[in-house]
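A reminder before we start the practical. When you read a complex entry, don't treat the lines as separate problems. The point of joint prediction is that each chain is placed relative to the others, so the output describes one connected object in space. Small molecules and nucleic acid strands, if listed, are placed in the same frame. In the example below there are three entries. Take a minute to note the order of the lines before looking further.
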Amino acid sequence: MLKTFLKGGVHPPENKLSAKSKIKDLPLPQVVRIPILQHLGAPSKPVVEAGDQVKAGQLIAKSEGYVSSSIHSPVSGKIMKIDDFIDSTGYKRKAIIINTEGDEWIENIDRSKEHIKEFSLSSEEIINRILSAGIVGLGGATFPTHVKLSIPRGKKAEYLIINGVECEPYLTADHALMLEHGEELITGIKLLKKALKVNRALVGIENNKPDALKHISALALNSNGINVYALKVKYPQGGEKQLIKALLNREVPSGGLPIDVGVVAFNVGTTYAVYEAIQKNKPLFERIVTVTGKSVKNSSNFRVRIGTPVSALIEAAGGLPENTGKIIYGGPMMGKALSDLSVPVTKGCSGILILPENESSRKKTQPCIRCSKCVSVCPMGLEPYLLMSLSQINLFDRLESDKVLDCIECGSCSYICPSNRPLLDYIRLGKSAVSKIIRTTKQ
Amino acid sequence: MNSVVLYTVISLSGIGVTAAIVLFLVAQKFKVYEDPRIDQVEDELPAANCGGCGFPGCRNFAEALVKAEDFEDLYCPVGGNETMIKVAELLGKVAVEQEPKVAVLRCNGACEFRPKVNKYDGTETCVIAAALYGGDTACEYGCLGYGDCVVVCKFDALHMDAETGLPVVTDVNCTACGACVKECPKDLFELRKRYKKDRKIYVACMNEDKGGPAKKSCSVACIGCTLCLKVCPFDAITMNNNLAFIDSEKCRLCKKCAPVCPTNSILEIGFPPKKEQKEENKTEQTTTLAGDKSDEVNNKPGNISEK
Amino acid sequence: MNKLLTISQSPHIFSDHTIRKLMLGVILALVPAFITALIFYGIGVIIVTSISLISCVLFEFIIQKYILKSEVRITDGSAIVTGLLLAFNLPSNLPWWIIIIGSLVAIGIGKMTFGGLGNNPFNPALVGRVFLLISFPTAMTVFPKAQGWNTPYIIPVDKIDALTGATPLNLIKEGIKSGRSVVELLEINNLNYSDMFLGNIGGSLGEIAAFALLAGFIYLLIRKIITWHIPLSVIGSVFLFTGLLWIFSEEGHNIISATLNINLPLIKFKDANEELKVFHMADPIFHLLTGGIMLGAIYMATDYVTSPMTHRGMIIYGTGIGVITVLIRVFGSYPEGISFAILIMNGFVPLINRYVKPKRFG
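Here is the predicted structure of the whole assembly.
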């Protein structure tokens, strides 16, 4: 019996078109634009100025405050300017714009492909190195990793969970990473185990990646305390709350964090970045991104430098197809539709999905037929039809008591609705209104 | 049969009388003393229950008025000074005269001025569309055009103009209650001082981008060039974040600023059209509210200057 | 890039569920029952079903287009399903004008007055059916004897006794009133369980064939159009409640003491003439196979709009329907109670939705 989370979930068609594609290095773009806010928390502060020469891996923005992250240059070249530029939020934000010149990296980065297994750092040293390498959650949430590793007083971590699930359709970046860098991943897991001071690590991989399961399981056999589990294919298995429930049968309490049940979870991409940061002295400035879509000529997985414009990735995958309707930054269920192709790839971008025109429009909204499909697919046990109605009539106290803040915005409800009702849109509206009221009443 | 009818009538009447007595006694015992002046004041108020005074409903406002020492912060925008004076007489207090205001949309980015950069297919209400980018044009500060403000206006003072895609304020209906100000997710509405004949001069733009990007996204955007600031004889114009703002307390409607604006983002509404020869020289420079047909322009027939 | 990209909020992919597909699924599930009715009752089935269908759709069209002046939505299939279910609750010889009145009440009052699809608190087909039952009691409770294709649609008044009969429920209820035991009654009226399962009994179009309805149920479960919660809780509670009553009746007492050698107390009560009578009760299987329980549990109670939204709520709802049905059947004056039971529980559904919440995560 495959492990899974019991409540809710949907089964969108997987469409893992780029599953067999080996990771290719994307050619360096001429200009990179690095937004100073690519993570949850405070924007970083630039430490360079227009005209400065930088090398790849050099610190260009440092973290401001505790929940923040530093940013390192992905290329070598000259800082052209620090100016507002459109990013994936659709709004213009301050970005460091660099003209690429060559590909020189700072001296202490080990560029060899050799896998370095041994390490002798203490837990605090590991966390510090992660902080200075600017590592954030690469699963999409971009939460600064060093903050997650610093366990608050009074709580204890028992398990480390590694998220290799990749439940979004079309995306295969994590899959490719597990196949090609499995050994490095294991070392990364060991480093994280040391940092958290735990003995047990559980790796969750969905059952639609049998080769990755086999490979990582074989590697994990040689190490103590790392267990690999196959998970039933169901969206949103990759959500950390659902993953913790499936692997350990523990439910993160409403309004709480995984550390409340003794768990800390990281994406495989983050784990690999941790390995590179500590064993190779390489800060985070590139990541694996899937470029895919039914009409894309060569759906592939690329190793992309941060700040590369999305247009460069699409070119490398065979160019923009004629019948393109939507271009999505991320996966089809939770990603953001882009309006402008010069938007740069940031630390949180796991894929670029191109949807053809005939799949890009929503169908007409019809009245709710109270079929309760939305209630049965919600992985958090909420009632989306009710939350939508309450949002429309601004009943914020009932919204709060009906736990609208528990919503993980997975989109399963809007996906399944036979009346094409924009459930998630109104739930997001309700969430932001309720959060605002809570924030203002607390003051 | 008669006895049945008789008993029925007696018993029902008895129940009715008992119930009436009980209700009367209870009503007397649990009576809440309310200042009778509250009812009188409430009768004077316009009963719109719009919240424009800041209180939830006219009755609450009436209570506040009765309890208040003075009327410094209390004003009903719908009833206006007339109502406040009547209420003040009733209560033996002094009404603080406030200037009448009107809601003004600080955006003139009609479809003809703002090219679309994407096709928006999501839920068509302003609050939801505002959470996803700045709408379907390159100006992220401008009006989204889905009409949340029209829905929330209780006085029928707003309607969407299909040609321009912008809401239009019907000045005569607007009571400056502030509902549209609260509702607009882009904060485009402003309650400005109401001049006579509903004349207005204001910067119809909220774009804080630098000149280049602003002009690219909308041809009538404020580019922050400060020409208007320099020409204003009353120091009524300030510039913040590449955006000009005309303070209606200081502005005397001298109209020196509008003609110098290179993008025509300062609108003058309600003024008589300029004379013929000046029109020929300046047809490129005077703009009325794009597609605006609802203003009562004081002009001779056939002499309307429209772009 | 000369074309404009489309943007919208996530999610960007959708399942292919539509209202029409769900309604079509329900219609397909009713086909076995339709064919069985056709086999037993002949041409009347086609006449009743088509008049009901056409008038329901027509009334919805007229009301939406001319009275409400809003969008016409007859193609979403919900009026067709209402028409079909209404027909399945009627005898196969019901005069055409009564059917049209029933459709008008079902669609006009049961659905449109509340705001159209999704807003009605009561099941429209049942609203129509109950209205007809109360307004035209004889026409609605006289069923032709099943003679296959030769079953006449129009039965002349003088031939009513010969060509029509009552439903098994009716026969048992009347028979019990006159003091007979159920075993006797089954024999006298030539009723056996296989007939009841296959449909060879009197009743409305959809009531007769339990097996056809069950086939439809399995189809609906496979297509994930309904879940098991409502049908099984209705059937289960009917089974348990009738079973409980049956154990203490004379029939149950006899069978239990014969097979299990336990002598349970017999319920005795005084009737209108002050005589001590024994309590007669048909067994649970009889109750499940006759009358509208199968149709009601599987098709009427599971109507999306009027049933609860959570699984726990559905079980409470189904249990309530079962209990009320048995109460009306055994202690009430109507032989069949499921229509009333469903309508009564429909009234409780908003309350159930308000207070029975799904189990939250965490």
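Discuss with your neighbour: The longest strand of chain C covers residues 5-7. What might explain this?
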